């Protein structure tokens, strides 16, 4: 198994190289050269297995023997032992044939833990084997930073530097990062906004000379291993509801498209999926593209579901590559045009997408209404991201007979602001986190200057 770029010009890489590399040198994203298949019998044999065992079986062909089976099994088991629910990602039935897949039982209460608990351990394994160390840099407006820190805190060969905008993330989100006191974790509060932090990370990746030879690794959602880890819960939840003997549909609150793309991979591997419903908030490029073939950027809108606030969906490129039947030159031309002007997909690729995907966009007012209504009907308090999914599933599902699984991407306590706005007194943090507001914090405040940030990284890495 090799990995190739969606823009067709970068060299093909092994699994190990692709995990350590991130973006391809031609500006594209890496995808597997062939998609491994799960047969009817493979899927049927997964009924009743543990999440870790299903994870091992689904991911094994992508790892391609580059980590021996016993070691990889150990990595997977360790990664998912950090989740507080024995089922790792339990299903919760809401209504007749509408289920929530609770992806928020990991250390930071959002679905990004599923991928990052695994990615940190895989990176550490390969670095150990090579006798190398690496530095991770990332910018966060909240969610991803804490999941990356939790995923790397035990990794001996990694130092992680996460930049967040000073005094512009919620207290819970800041504390989920700054109360991790491990020696290899460095939180930097930048005196600026998220874009300043992001720009300094980008500049550091573009010119890595300041690290004199130490590898800089990205753990954002373009890393293939994150997609790979997310394929697993589509398979596990569908099998729990009767796959391969019956099909299911999925509804996915979406932003950078990594999550729902993983679902599409599960379908291509042989999982019977009737429909993927893409839920967006007011930042609706995915919905505009699918519904109206309006593939254009629009101003960013700050919404009650902030982890879905995006202008461009980076992983959509991976789906375009499939829709354009793996024509890297066509994908490259489309995306280069899109950077500077409103664009549209060609007819045949758009028709292919519409065979598998539907979409729906949900406003802030509707998010609040859905949180109230869902509670009234089911006694569940949904987080605002999950609320977009709940509504989109009801609006866009093709039929009532096929079970629909809405991905619950965060715990409501993590986004209590929206829950309070919807009229509830708030949501308690789960028991293992109830002292979060009393824990000791550690972080450094730095000016929004590239040289200051890079000096900090060089002086503090181990
Ligand atoms: C990251 C995130 C999303 C969006 O996921 P993508 O893979 O970027 O589409 C949705 N909800 C929550 C809570 C998130 O943290």
From TrEMBL:
<dbReference type="InterPro" id="IPR001926">
    <property type="entry name" value="TrpB-like_PALP"/>
</dbReference>
<dbReference type="InterPro" id="IPR004450">
    <property type="entry name" value="Thr_synthase-like"/>
</dbReference>
<feature type="domain" description="Threonine synthase N-terminal">
    <location>
        <begin position="2"/>
        <end position="80"/>
    </location>
</feature>
<dbReference type="InterPro" id="IPR000634">
    <property type="entry name" value="Ser/Thr_deHydtase_PyrdxlP-BS"/>
</dbReference>
<dbReference type="InterPro" id="IPR051166">
    <property type="entry name" value="Threonine_Synthase"/>
</dbReference>
<keyword id="KW-0456">Lyase</keyword>
<dbReference type="InterPro" id="IPR036052">
    <property type="entry name" value="TrpB-like_PALP_sf"/>
</dbReference>
<dbReference type="Pfam" id="PF14821">
    <property type="entry name" value="Thr_synth_N"/>
</dbReference>
<keyword id="KW-0791">Threonine biosynthesis</keyword>
<dbReference type="Pfam" id="PF24857">
    <property type="entry name" value="THR4_C"/>
</dbReference>
<feature type="domain" description="Tryptophan synthase beta chain-like PALP">
    <location>
        <begin position="99"/>
        <end position="329"/>
    </location>
</feature>
<protein>
    <recommendedName>
        <fullName>Threonine synthase</fullName>
        <ecNumber>4.2.3.1</ecNumber>
    </recommendedName>
</protein>
<dbReference type="GO" id="GO:0004795">
    <property type="term" value="F:threonine synthase activity"/>
</dbReference>
<dbReference type="Pfam" id="PF00291">
    <property type="entry name" value="PALP"/>
</dbReference>
<keyword id="KW-0028">Amino-acid biosynthesis</keyword>
<comment type="pathway">
    <text>Amino-acid biosynthesis; L-threonine biosynthesis; L-threonine from L-aspartate: step 5/5.</text>
</comment>
<dbReference type="InterPro" id="IPR029144">
    <property type="entry name" value="Thr_synth_N"/>
</dbReference>
<keyword id="KW-0663">Pyridoxal phosphate</keyword>
<dbReference type="InterPro" id="IPR037158">
    <property type="entry name" value="Thr_synth_N_sf"/>
</dbReference>
<comment type="similarity">
    <text>Belongs to the threonine synthase family.</text>
</comment>
């Amino acid at each position: 198994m090799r990995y190739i770029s969606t823009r067709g010009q970068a060299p093909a890489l092994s699994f190990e190289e692709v995990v350590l590399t991130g973006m391809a040198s031609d500006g594209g994203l890496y995808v597997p050269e062939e998609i491994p298949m799960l047969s009817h019998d493979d899927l049927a044999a997964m009924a009743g297995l543990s999440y870790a065992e299903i994870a091992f079986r689904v991911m094994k062909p992508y790892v391609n023997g580059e980590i021996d089976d016993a070691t990889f099994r150990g990595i997977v088991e360790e990664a998912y032992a950090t989740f507080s629910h024995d089922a790792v990602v339990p299903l919760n039935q809401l209504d007749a044939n509408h289920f929530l897949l609770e992806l928020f039982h990991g250390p930071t209460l959002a679905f990004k833990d599923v991928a990052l608990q695994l990615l940190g351990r895989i990176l550490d394994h390969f670095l150990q084997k090579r006798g190398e160390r690496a530095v991770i840099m990332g910018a966060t407006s909240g969610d991803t930073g804490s999941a990356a820190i939790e995923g790397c805190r035990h990794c001996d060969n990694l130092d992680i530097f996460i930049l967040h905008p000073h005094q512009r993330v919620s207290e819970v989100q800041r504390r989920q990062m700054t109360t991790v006191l491990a020696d290899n974790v460095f939180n930097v509060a930048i005196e600026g906004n998220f874009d300043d932090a992001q720009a300094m990370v980008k500049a550091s990746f573009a010119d890595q000379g300041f690290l004199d030879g130490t590898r800089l690794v990205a753990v954002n959602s373009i890393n293939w291993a994150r997609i790979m880890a997310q394929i697993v819960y589509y398979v596990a939840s569908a099998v729990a509801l009767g796959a391969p003997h019956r099909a299911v549909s999925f509804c996915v609150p979406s932003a950078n498209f990594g999550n729902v793309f993983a679902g599409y991979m599960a379908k291509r591997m042989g999982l019977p999926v009737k429909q993927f419903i893409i839920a967006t908030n007011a930042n609706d490029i995915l919905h505009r593209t699918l519904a109206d073939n309006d593939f254009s950027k629009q101003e960013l809108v700050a919404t009650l579901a902030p982890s879905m606030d995006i202008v461009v969906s980076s992983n959509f490129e991976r789906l375009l590559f499939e829709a354009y039947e793996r024509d890297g030159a066509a994908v490259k031309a489309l995306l280069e045009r899109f950077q500077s002007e409103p664009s549209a997909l060609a007819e045949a690729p758009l028709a292919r997408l519409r065979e598998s995907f539907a979409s729906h966009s949900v406003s802030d007012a509707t998010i609040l209404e859905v949180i109230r209504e869902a509670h009234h009907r089911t006694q569940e308090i949904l987080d605002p991201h999950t609320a977009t999914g709940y509504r989109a599933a009801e609006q866009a599902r093709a039929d009532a007979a096929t079970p629909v699984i809405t991905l619950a991407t965060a715990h409501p306590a993590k986004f209590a602001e929206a829950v309070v706005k919807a009229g509830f007194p708030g949501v308690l943090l789960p028991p293992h986190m109830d002292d979060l507001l009393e824990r000791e914090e550690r972080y450094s405040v730095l000016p929004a200057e590239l040289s200051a940030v890079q000096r900090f990284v060089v002086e503090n890495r181990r």
